User: Fold this.
Amino acid sequence: MLEFRKKVYRQLEPTAWRRKGLSPTNHFLVYLIIIAVIEAVLDTEPVISTGRELLLNNIEFGLGLIFLVEYVARAWVAVENPRYQKYRFPRLRYLVSPMAIIDLLAILPALFAFGGASSLVLRFFRVLRMLRLAKLGRTSKAFKLLRAAFVQKRHEFALILGMLMVTILIAGSMLYLAEGEAQPDKFGSIPRAMWWAIVTLTTVGYGDAFPITPLGKFLAGAIAIMGVMLIALPTGLFAASFTEAMEKERDEDAAEEEEKAAKA
Amino acid sequence: MLEFRKKVYRQLEPTAWRRKGLSPTNHFLVYLIIIAVIEAVLDTEPVISTGRELLLNNIEFGLGLIFLVEYVARAWVAVENPRYQKYRFPRLRYLVSPMAIIDLLAILPALFAFGGASSLVLRFFRVLRMLRLAKLGRTSKAFKLLRAAFVQKRHEFALILGMLMVTILIAGSMLYLAEGEAQPDKFGSIPRAMWWAIVTLTTVGYGDAFPITPLGKFLAGAIAIMGVMLIALPTGLFAASFTEAMEKERDEDAAEEEEKAAKA
Amino acid sequence: MLEFRKKVYRQLEPTAWRRKGLSPTNHFLVYLIIIAVIEAVLDTEPVISTGRELLLNNIEFGLGLIFLVEYVARAWVAVENPRYQKYRFPRLRYLVSPMAIIDLLAILPALFAFGGASSLVLRFFRVLRMLRLAKLGRTSKAFKLLRAAFVQKRHEFALILGMLMVTILIAGSMLYLAEGEAQPDKFGSIPRAMWWAIVTLTTVGYGDAFPITPLGKFLAGAIAIMGVMLIALPTGLFAASFTEAMEKERDEDAAEEEEKAAKA
Amino acid sequence: MLEFRKKVYRQLEPTAWRRKGLSPTNHFLVYLIIIAVIEAVLDTEPVISTGRELLLNNIEFGLGLIFLVEYVARAWVAVENPRYQKYRFPRLRYLVSPMAIIDLLAILPALFAFGGASSLVLRFFRVLRMLRLAKLGRTSKAFKLLRAAFVQKRHEFALILGMLMVTILIAGSMLYLAEGEAQPDKFGSIPRAMWWAIVTLTTVGYGDAFPITPLGKFLAGAIAIMGVMLIALPTGLFAASFTEAMEKERDEDAAEEEEKAAKA
Assistant:
């Protein structure tokens, strides 16, 4: 039994897997998560789900059962994990870890029917199923890289975010002054004008709010030209930082693979 | 006859051409392809084509005949190509190569009339003629460069595409929760909200879908600011990778030219 | 008393603070400024302020009083500042410095009621309160960095701004020619067409003005493709310049900290 | 007289001016050109020009006279220019140079009244006055830099423009197939769909044309994500190339100044 538990642990925990890449079980789970997320997305679209409720509910229930088995198995093998062994109740410690709680939240909606639930509650539980995406984070390097790239330049990002907020505030205040009279529903308060400022400075430009007075157009033009520069700042920083993190990761990977090869 | 076939082969196959640049035949074909593509584009516009059907059909038929001659000639000289000589039927092998099949598909619509065809079939055959563009790939370095730049950073692109998908999913799910009630036709399902997410994160911002509730606007603003950063990532990577591939190509070209000069 | 004034001076003047980071007083003021700005922003939104006028006015008045005390204290300790000691009336000299005038302008709207004021005057005084943001500049490195990044490349920016103006002018003139007849309200004069040019070249694209004639669409397409390149120029320059300024700043900071540590 | 002509020549020809910067005459002309362009822009706006026709016409006529004097003076001193001295009729040679012809075209509209002219002719002559901007090119380094940056990477730009055209063609063809039936006025021909493709790939996104069918939205989403990458390519290239040209220019300037100083 102990031998079997150790085997299951090695299959489930990516850091305990001795060979290159993912274990067969985790490989299978990654595909299953992708299928479950696609199913959950399509399930919300009435054009697709109407008339297929039973089929979709059964798929959902089946996927939910498999993820429940995974959840229980992970709790069972938590005692093998050196990270939890130092605690008195390793399994309980695992169950209250953020990852396990997210797992549980993603499983729950699949196992219960929400016949009498209101539209908003239903929508909320449907979105809960999207949390399965977080399960990918356990086996994926992408999240690790993103985090490393962010952490490395966190001071720069905080600074830039601050500047951006100030720019949005100033841009919003100027247009509130210039257009507030002419378009009170769109520029009649600074928060309303700030929505315009965000949409303009990110160059999204939906066209739901734009200046119509000559002064407003002049200010908006100057803001658009200046702001485009500021918004582009984090872009360059982040791209550079991400590339760096990626190269570092690859070097570490190569070293790890060599180590594993030496052991085997 | 064999001597003539060898000459034709050298004219048609860019890698067999010994002098700098393209052979006269391929030069002529490049111009012909550009003319044929422009003709095919203009042919679909009723304002231009109405009243000129006969003229356009004749041009189309004439161009189709020349490309048919080229197609047959390429099959005929395939036996000269070292790449196909190792097969038992070099010409048949050439005819089932992807390039030859694309050639045939692009020729077909020019040679047949589609009097009784439905609108969709007609449109499909018209677009088939665009495949002539792929013929340019045979003589163009642009495609080679693009491919090299892509291949070199394919792991990074796969990773970024994954992150992008997750971002679009999360952004869509959030707006589905916040705006689904207020605008069911635009945010009433996750796929619908994902269309909004793509249009916003790429900063295209058509204005066909945008949040109207305060919570929706707040979330959309945060998503726009954060997302612009993520979308900009592949940009920097790709630009760097493309420049690198271009420089490498130029060095190789210079070496090749020197070699040819030494031979001559 | 002199001892106390010296203490207050060290608390208020960031350059006189001997330890790392900000003094407790300046820390407290930074939070207060952020709260005051958020309050001022929300105050302009009728959905939030209606029915809460008294509460918001009291918060505003309280914050105004604290900032008034700060204003008086800063004037009182100005005699300690070596920068103003060389003048005959150091306090008066401080009071006419741009920073002190901005401080006063930001305090005034909080202390007076504008019962009978017209809508535009009211809006103007509300926006005046946003000047509190400038107070952050006293303790923030962000503004210092932004300025350094800008000053270092000011010739390039002037040049690019000039090119941009010329591009906007040319783009506007072309569309004025092509679309002026068809859409006189949007392209009937060069200034009107220039609004379209700015919205297009920054890729904001509200959709309030776009060409509808074939010639206008052709020109607009070419302008959009070419212009996107030009607009992107300052972006790269500024990002590079900002990163440089940031690194220089960090080196200087490290040196300063070491010096302070050596003194203590 | 000859002495005076030499002096005028040194004042008008920037390359003949021995001291740093521009000659006083050229300085004055630069300001005059900027004023004349602003006047010409505002003149087209009915809100500004209505009721001020006489004033604007007089300003226009006065500026036109000054530019005419400049034109004649430049022709008169052309014999001093080593570039034209080798021709038999240096002045005639100068008058048929592109720069002189542009000068003349920009002067003409100011000197004639167009009472009976149609709206389009009037608009055309108004835009002709914008050619005064080209006069700035004579004294400005910006155009020189732009040209250098472009020339240095011309092969890359040609390649990228080609790829861009192919991408626009493919994107347009795909949406023509997917949306042609549903929205014949916007996607009913490939040229129409290409307008959508340009507006989307440059991320301008006016919102005058967007897909409404599920297939169209899916294709448009994929095109937007992929295309944003390609469009961003020339941006990086051009920014790098421009910075390089700028640095080279500065080095050359420094060398030239030293030479002048050594001469003086």
Q: What stands out?
A: DSSP finds 14 helices and no strands in chain C. Chain C has a mean pLDDT of 84. Chain C has two domains: 2-139, 151-263. The CA atoms of residues 180 and 188 of chain C lie 4 Å apart.
